[in-house]
Amino acid sequence: MTQPAMQLQNVKKTIGSKPIIKGLDFDIYPGEVFGFLGPNGAGKTTTIRMMVGLMKMSEGDVFIEGKSVSQDFKSAIRHVGGIVENPEMYPFMSGWKNLLHYSRMMPGVSKERIEEVVKLVGLENRIKQKVGKYSLGMRQRLGIAQALLHRPSVLILDEPTNGLDPSGIREIRSYIRRMAEEEQVAVIVSSHILSEMEMMCDRIGIIKNGELITIQTVNEALQESNLKEVFVDATPQEQAKPLLQEFTESEVKSDQNGLYVTLTRENIPVLVRKLVENDIEVFSVSIHRSTLEDKFLDLIGEGAIE
Amino acid sequence: MSNFLQLIRNEQMKSYSQISNWILYGILALLVIAMAVFIKIEGQMTDGSETGEGGDWRQELQAENEQLEQQAEEAPSFAASNEEQIAMNQYRLDNDIEPRGYDVWSFLQENRTNTAVISLFTIIVAAGILANEFKWGTIKLLLIRPISRTKILFAKYASVLVFALTMLVFLMVLAFLTGSAFFGIESASEPYLYFKDGSVHETSILQHTLLQYLLGSVNLVMMATFAFMISAVFRNSALAIGVAIFLMFAGNSIVAFLSRFDWAKYILFANTDLNQHLSGNPMFEGTSLGFSLGVLAVYFVIFLCLAWAVFTKRDVASA
User: pLDDT 10s digit of each residue in chain A, 306 long?
Assistant: First the structure.
């Protein structure tokens, strides 16, 4: 495999006597989107702050393009673009001035590059306006623009879809995928929303109470667990329920809306045919949630914070 | 080095993009113009009564001196202050120097008190320049650039000094323009008299004025540095402004209160007024200009080192 864009080696953080991060080891490669998933308070933001040098590591080190963040901060950080938490900009300056401000802090960012980035995130019509007048979605885009100015090889986005509407989320997702695929950028995305992660990440690392529990490749995980929980709205329910039970060993659940059954994907058409053959009226059959989510929730343990 | 200048440019851009900054300039301009108007009105009122006597300035000074001497005999408590005025008048008579009318130079010199106002404004700017980045949350984006924290800190400090200097130049230019418009320009080559060590000395008015502004800036720089340090350590601009302004106003009282102790001469505020050495009556016996400059330098270095140590070492935790 290629040289990793970012490496974490035994990264630890202790505040007072309390270990916050208990030793993280993982690599992130060019062209991949790495999801950093965990419940609130698991240590995602602390880890990201250590990656970009805002917080010092108590032990271990982070290497970006082979350069140590703790020893050679300037060489390491020049390859990184990021948003840490909210995309906070200077509200009293225009979007353009904000970008100009950051461009002066990095070598080799021309005016043309700023214009290019503005176009990339689709802000060209509003860039002369004060950031204070921007919506959260526009600020998020400006945040991404500022992160991309110097063509970083590692892009770190902490909760990039926070506060965005669905179309905004979709747009951000497509930027992120495009960055990874076309520019071979290694993207690190943190979130506590699994469904979002499933859609944009190649690999997902799960952190809980400062420890990395597992790293899953999204495709593998999806194939591995081919079982789906399917929602069936059919009448009469009493007659449908025993038919559904034939497809699964686990119990068929029901509520006032309909029935929930867990079965493999291939069995869904078979089930529908069976219901129809038995003169049961089917209003809707849909995948309620994948068992990937169940699996992750089992790992995370429903968000308990130590 | 070039990116240090870029950082200062950034700071200037940020500060002049805020309306509050322009309000400070507005207040200063208003103060200068209001002062000119008051002096003008006051001058017109007294002019009317005095020009009536008309006549020679020599006779006037002589009359004034006689009056002052008489007053000193009647009430000895006035003697000390009158002595200075008598000596000045006598010097004029002896050397044939006509007393100056009130002109732009007098006005410019009077405006040196406005350096205290600039100190106040500089404290506000110095207190906010770091603390606001934390408040806005922009510190996170500022520190993830290939620039050391030391450089960012000192660019911000340099930017505070640039602001103070800009304000001083603004004050002087505005005072000069307003002064010329209201009071006219007399020759700048006329000597300016001052009293030091029991005798009268001559200097050029321009030199004297610039020196006064320079001395006024000492307090400005020290208090701004102090506010900057508090802001870097506590990341709270309100605290920095409050403490710095309190000390600026209470400083002299603190020194006066503690003046019976010998160590009081090492207090910052016992040394910020360098005029005490130039006029020859220092606040504490045995201190000199060199001593005060030394004390100021030590405080200056301590303030900046504290700011540096805290800012470069501390984690930027959740805002």
Answer: 578 899 999 999 988 888 888 889 999 999 999 998 887 778 888 899 999 999 999 999 999 998 999 899 999 999 999 888 888 899 999 999 999 999 999 888 899 999 999 998 888 899 999 999 998 888 888 998 999 999 999 999 988 877 778 888 888 888 888 888 988 999 999 887 777 787 888 898 888 888 888 888 877 766 666 677 788 888 888 888 888 888 877 778 888 888 888 888 788 888 888 888 888 888 888 877 665 666 666 666 654 444
A146 — contact with chain B (CB < 8 Å)? yes
CB contacts < 8 Å between A and B, how many? 82
Please give the full DSSP string across B44-99, using - where no structure is assigned: HHHHHHHGGG-S-HHHHHHHHHHHHHHHHHH-GGGHHHHHHHHHHHHHHHHHT-PP
Which residue from B minimizes the CA distance to A102? B142
Q: Which of B138, B145, B316 is opposite residue A88, by nearest beta carbon?
A: B138
Enter the pTM of the model.
Answer: 0.82
- A173: distance to nearest CA of chain B, Å? 22
Domains of chain A (ranges, CATH numbers):
6-222 (3.40.50.300), 227-288 (3.30.70)
Complete edge-to-edge strand list for the sheet that includes strand A281-290: A253-254, A259-264, A227-235, A281-290
- Residue A159: HSE in the Cβ half-sphere, 13 Å Cα cutoff: 16
**In contact, A95 and B17? CB cutoff 8 Å:** no
Rounded Cα–Cα distance for residues A69 and A63 (Å): 6
* Strands laid side by side in the A59-64 sheet: A18-28, A6-15, A59-64, A67-68
Within 8 A of A77 by CB-CB distance, chain B residues are 144-146
> B1 at the A interface (CB within 8 A)?
no
3-state secondary structure of B7: helix
Which are the contacts of B88, defined by CB distance < 8 A and separation ≥ 6?
B193, B195, B200
Q: What is the pLDDT of residues B86-136, one digit of tens each?
A: 777 777 777 777 776 777 888 888 888 888 899 999 999 999 999 999 999
Q: Which residue blocks in chain B are alpha helix, DSSP H?
A: 2-16, 19-50, 57-74, 79-95, 104-110, 114-136, 139-143, 149-183, 205-234, 237-258, 275-278, 289-313
State whether residue A103 sits within 8 Å of chain B by CB.
no
